[in-house]
Amino acid sequence: LGLALYASSLCAMSGAAFLYHDYCVIGAGPAGLQAAYFLQRAGRDYIVFERSHAPGSFFALYPRHRKLISINKQYTGKSNSEFNLRHDWNSLLSHDRRLLFRRYSRDFFPSADTMVRYLEDFASLLKLRVQYNTAVIHVTLEKNEQAWNGHYFLLTDQDRKNYKCSSLLVAAGTWVPNVVNFPGSEYVEGYETVSINPEDFTGQTVLILGRGNSAFETAENILGVTNFIHMVSRSRVRLSWATHYVGDLRAINNGLLDTYQLKSLDGLLEGDLEDLAIIKDKKGKLHITLQFYLENRNISAGMDSITLPQDELDNFATRTPYDRVIRCLGWKFDFSIYNRSLRMMPGKGNIKKYPQIKPSYESRGTRGLFVLGTASHSVDFRKSAGGFIHGFRYTTRAVHRLLENRHHGVPWPSTVYPITQLTNSIIKRVNEASGLYQMFSVLADIILLRENATAFEYLEEYPIGVLAELEMQTGRKARNGLFVIIMEYGRNFSGADKDVFYYNRAVGEAQHAWQSNFLHPVIYYYKHLPTEREMKLRPPDWPLPRPNAIHHIVEDFLTDWTAPNAHILPLRRFLENCLGTDLRNFFAESCFLFAFIRQKLPPSCQQGYFRMQGLLGSQELRQHAVQAGLLQDYTHTDFSGDRPPDSHHGSQEHLMRDHGIPLRPLQHLVNAKDE
């Protein structure tokens, strides 16, 4: 019957007119608008379908109590816009400075209503092509060898209008409530509909199913008016400061933990919700029992005929009846609109609420179908920030760059620098890059070395899960080795059972940098691009395969990795060991001497001094170098010549005089080499 219905739907579509776009985006939430922005800037043919009359419809309802838990930090002490995005968890990426979220709210935890207004402005000010009041109710495939991916995506909306596109970007989020069915579950109120007026709970006893931020948010709202609140979930509470995962319980909502541990009647319990049952008595009170007590019994026969746990165990934890039971179990992805031909399958285990996708955010079942935003969180679930705006704004940009290379021949953006800038380039990025900082262990900067390590090509924020496919996905070549720069927490520092406030929790010395616990930069060096097999066989909990060399930059209390001795010097020596070269910068005087006494000159001399680009001496610089022990003091030597000391033209003899280098015979230089 299913095949027949599928065939009939194809027949119906075959006679209908299709409006074609290269790219179709489902959902005008933050991820959909972010994708639309990049497509529009690139001049691509796209359309965004939004079922509501305005963008960000999820935020029009959720969170129910209207306070977001995403940080809106106004001040950082710095004016660097890229650095400031590290602490702005709400802004989308754009060129328009008006569209920074701090211009919409000064609250550290802003209102969801402000987010709705922000998204409306983002769509309107940037003139994004969003088609509102369009609910996509069916998606299927049409095989076609001429299509980009060997097929087109056919979409149908609620008015039976049809659309065709070559690439489908799903940014619909997770909005279907998670529901647990058990005997008596019809008495449970859902988070999406329960009253948010605390007065409606005055003097009541409440049971909350769930233990995430929505559950604690609900409890926080009624904490001061209820008799007591109990909270049940199958897993223990996970605190975000211990797990370093922003989706776990945040401090702003955890008032119930205080009242529980300080013995103020409220409490937390662990148990499998699918084992529960609820019985309603004649007074409307809700009694909690276990399903095995109901075997071979008729619930409708009344309370008197049913054995409750407290009949056998008189101190059963939930023996007191409840006035209300509230379900706060989060949301899941809506798979219902996708035809079986797309093979959009749910994940397994704790990521079953998300569709199965590759580390490139492309569907495992269908080429050309990419999942963006919250629904793509299976890639880094409970690890990084990919399920939240401050994470998926970067992964969305990464997907756009992958598509630009695949379909339009536009390679991944990169910048080529001389090798002398290697240390500075890394230090600059680890100190300001927001994508690396938010999507730690997921996005990485890639440094591709040129032949003989004379130059390098810098690629920003590439998904490390597809590192083996780098050449194909980016259009760049990795023939001479590469460095991978990512941010990591310590291996054993994060977890629900971890004490992250223990004494001596931080490392301060460079020689112990590999033991750093807090977020810090890690540089992997590979002589060859890792293969697919090496990626699959990487050590447990490692984001990458074992490298030829690895370097941890020691954690820093200020997340400011610019200390000359603790941060920069160890990094430079690591890079020098990997490349077999000297990455120090030298004054022109030193380069001149090296030309006589060394067979191989440092890159800074080759690319600077011998191209007339070296750092020329001045009285102030020379004095500083002498005081630092970098140069000998020749200021008391009497040199002849007519040119002023700062002239840099003329014969080699005058050049040597200008730089304060004595005219010593070559034999003296050779002896200096021996010394």
What can you tell me about this protein's structure?
With 675 residues, the protein is of the alpha/beta class. The model is unreliable at 3-8 and 639-675 (pLDDT under 50). The protein folds into 4 domains: 19-176 and 332-403, 3-Layer(bba) Sandwich (FAD/NAD(P)-binding domain), CATH 3.50.50.60; 185-329, FAD/NAD(P)-binding domain (3-Layer(bba) Sandwich), CATH 3.50.50.60; 414-579, no CATH class; 588-620, no CATH class. It starts with a helix and ends with a helix. 26% of the residues lie in helices and 17% in strands. Residues 635-657 are annotated as: Disordered. This is FAD-dependent oxidoreductase domain-containing protein 2.
Concise account of the structure shown:
The protein has 675 residues and is α/β, with parallel strands linked by helices. The chain is built from 20 helices and 22 strands.
User: Sheet with the most strands?
Assistant: 7 strands, mixed
Helix content: 25-40%
Mean pLDDT: 89
According to CATH, the homologous superfamily of the largest domain is FAD/NAD(P)-binding domain
Low-confidence stretches: 3-8, 639-675
Rg calculated over all Cα atoms: 32 Å
Subunit structure: Interacts with SEL1L. May interact with OS9 and DNAJC10. Interacts with TXNDC16.
GO molecular function: flavin adenine dinucleotide binding; monooxygenase activity
InterPro entries: Auxin_biosynth/cation_transpt, FAD/NAD-bd_sf
Organism: Setophaga kirtlandii
